[in-house]
Amino acid sequence: MSEMPLTHELLIRGGVFAFVLLGMALWEVVARRRPQRIPRRQRWPSNLAIVVLDTLAVRLVFPLAAVGAALVAAEQGWGLFNLVSVPTWLAMVASVVMLDMAIYFQHRLFHVVPWLWRLHRMHHADLEFDVTTGLRFHPLEILISMGIKLAVVALLGAPALAVLIFEVLLNATSMFNHGNVRLPARLDRWLRLAVVTPDMHRVHHSIVRQETDSNFGFNLPWWDRLFGTYRDQPAAGHLGMTIGIEDFREAHDLRLDRMLLQPFVNPPREVT
């Protein structure tokens, strides 16, 4: 079983990615939450190209990625769950939850440290909010994020299968909670108890600074409530709110070359 996640990781992740992306894209057509003034054909090619670049960068710099790191940690006896005897199911559940908490704090860090914000703001600079926004991350941010993730995996001694499950869930929920989809208000309230919903995460993409610095969770919604960063709704409402950041408001900023150069132009915002 220990070799299974690494052997089939790309197939599993690729299959789930394609299924969720297609499903969310169709859902956005059938039940759109917000009208979009910038068409998909203008945004999607660059947003999807970033996914290709990110994948190539990770495989080049970290050939084994997170699942491979978990296998190495198990072989070397590194990390908490390789040193302390606990039931396998408990190690897996705890690893998924703790990895998600680590991603929450990493996300907050990228909003606080100016040079990290330079990288992360490319994600926020999308002028619309839909499924491909959840894939739009600068390659340098992805590499730093992977480095942090590898360290957490090694410290935890997380089982390889748990890491694979987490990676698949994180990718799928990122596409889900960035979806421009409509959910009944009552269902949204119930779902927020277990997963970050599109309406919850959309607040995070508001141009209003106080709203941008809230709702940092990607997968589990608990951390924002627990650590005081939860905001229920945008002040202007979901139909009235402005998506994006003030620095990049022109349509040409959506081009791939401009996206890749964004960290190196304009001063980073001040930390308060």
TrEMBL record:
Domain Fatty acid hydroxylase: start-end pairs: 93-229
Pfam entry (one): FA_hydroxylase
Key words, A-Z: Membrane, Transmembrane, Transmembrane helix
Intracellular or extracellular location(s): Membrane
GO biological process, one term: lipid biosynthetic process
Cellular component terms (Gene Ontology): membrane
Domain of life: Bacteria
Record flagged with keyword Membrane: yes
Name of the protein in its database record: Sterol desaturase family protein
